[in-house]
């Protein structure tokens, strides 16, 4: 069933994605045109709008659409949603000009508080028919990881006032937040939506099999955090725990795919939806393999030394796995339709920029030196991502206007 409320909210999420893409372009062109803005401040704005404007708003909208009791008045949800927008706009208007300072920290803090309110609202207003569903267990766990990840930002204030930004605990707090965001909150929320799609067609995973997967994926999520600590060159135990976490996470996802592969064929997805899902599966496999590789001391040190590898990995996760996953569900639920043109533009931009970013990391590692005009070429390829997002947004907004 279509919902104009959720369509509008997803339109806002995509708009944030377009804004984040524009900010990313400004960062790409910074060294070419010598813009006058503070580069670090703009990085903060770009990352916050991408993670919290695009991914958070899209995921919470989809979770609300799928699992909320339809009898629950939507007025409270609207208040939570617009409260969230107030904090996001506040961050957008402060981070580019002051970085982490009084007002940007204030809006970031308010965002965390509103996200807790959303979690409470979700928990209290779940449609009773989903209470025992496997999909809901994943969605609930995802929200728990989202709340858990926020311990990182809360710790930053105390760390800066006592140990300073140069302390290893400062970076560890950021990595704690990022890890439980993309490996916990975002990944499990997408898996919950995937199981929801199957359950809507009565394609149920046996409870015993689900429990086996669920335990494995959670063990993997928790233990793989230790991979984010290896840049500190800790004892061998941290390498073993992080490596075990990556292996268990890989096992859990392969096991889930084995359980659901035959069921996916019964969904009768469109060609584009099949393409989106296949893209997500391939990119997730690549992400997990790269994660597993960093359990080896040599590659852990390489990832810490050459920043482009870290940037490439984060973009692979957010622009790849998470974003393509969101595109799939928005299209499947007929809330925001993806076109082949928007997919091709976005995918081509994503693929080219990933290749270029990893190439620069490899070049630095091997002391090759990058080719002339590298930044210009990277900037042009980044434009394709923006064009893909704008094509998606314009097409859906024009359709909405025609139906109103």
UniProtKB/TrEMBL annotation:
Domain of life (superkingdom): Bacteria
Q: Which UniProt keywords apply?
A: Membrane, Transmembrane, Transmembrane helix
Q: What name does UniProt use for this protein?
A: Cytochrome C and Quinol oxidase polypeptide I
User: Any stretches that span the bilayer, and where are they?
Assistant: 12-33, 45-67, 79-97, 103-123, 143-168, 174-198, 210-231, 237-259, 280-300, 312-331, 343-362, 374-394
Q: What organism is listed for this UniProt entry?
A: Flagellimonas taeanensis
């Amino acid at each position: 069933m279509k919902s104009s409320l959720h369509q509008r909210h997803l339109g806002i999420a995509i708009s944030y994605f377009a804004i984040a893409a524009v900010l990313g372009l400004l960062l790409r062109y910074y060294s070419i045109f010598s813009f006058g803005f503070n580069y670090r401040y703009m990085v903060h704005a770009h990352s916050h709008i991408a993670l919290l404007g695009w991914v958070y708003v899209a995921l919470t909208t989809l979770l609300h659409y799928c699992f909320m009791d339809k009898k629950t008045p939507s007025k409270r949800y609207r208040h939570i949603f617009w409260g969230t927008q107030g904090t996001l706009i506040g961050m957008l208007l402060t981070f580019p000009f002051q970085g982490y300072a009084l007002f940007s920290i204030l809006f970031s803090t308010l965002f965390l508080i509103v996200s807790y309110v959303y979690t409470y609202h979700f928990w209290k207003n779940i449609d009773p028919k989903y209470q025992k569903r496997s999909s809901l267990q994943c969605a609930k766990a995802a929200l728990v990881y989202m709340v858990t990840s926020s311990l990182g930002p809360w710790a930053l204030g105390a760390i800066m006032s006592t140990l300073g930004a140069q302390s290893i605990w400062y970076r560890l707090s950021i990595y704690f937040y990022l890890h439980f965001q993309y490996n916990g909150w975002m990944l499990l929320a997408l898996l919950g939506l995937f199981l929801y799609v199957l359950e809507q067609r009565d394609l149920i995973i046996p409870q015993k099999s689900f429990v086996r997967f669920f335990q494995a994926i959670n063990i993997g999520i928790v233990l793989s955090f230790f991979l984010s600590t290896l840049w500190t060159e800790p004892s061998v135990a941290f390498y073993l725990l992080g490596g075990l976490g990556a292996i268990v996470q890989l096992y859990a996802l392969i096991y889930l795919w084995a359980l659901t592969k035959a069921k996916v064929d019964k969904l009768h997805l469109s060609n584009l939806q099949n393409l989106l899902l296949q893209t997500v599966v391939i990119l997730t496999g690549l992400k997990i393999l790269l994660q597993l590789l960093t359990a080896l001391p040599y590659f852990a040190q390489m990832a810490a030394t050459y920043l482009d590898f870290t940037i490439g990995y984060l973009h692979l996760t957010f622009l790849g796995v998470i974003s393509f996953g969101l595109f799939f569900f928005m299209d499947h639920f007929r809330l925001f339709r993806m076109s082949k043109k928007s997919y091709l533009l976005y995918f081509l931009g994503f693929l080219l920029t990933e290749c270029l970013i990893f190439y620069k990391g490899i070049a630095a590692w091997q002391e090759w030196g990058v080719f002339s005009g590298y930044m210009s070429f990277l900037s042009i390829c980044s434009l394709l991502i923006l064009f893909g997002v704008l094509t998606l947004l314009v097409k859906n907004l024009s359709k909405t206007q025609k139906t109103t």
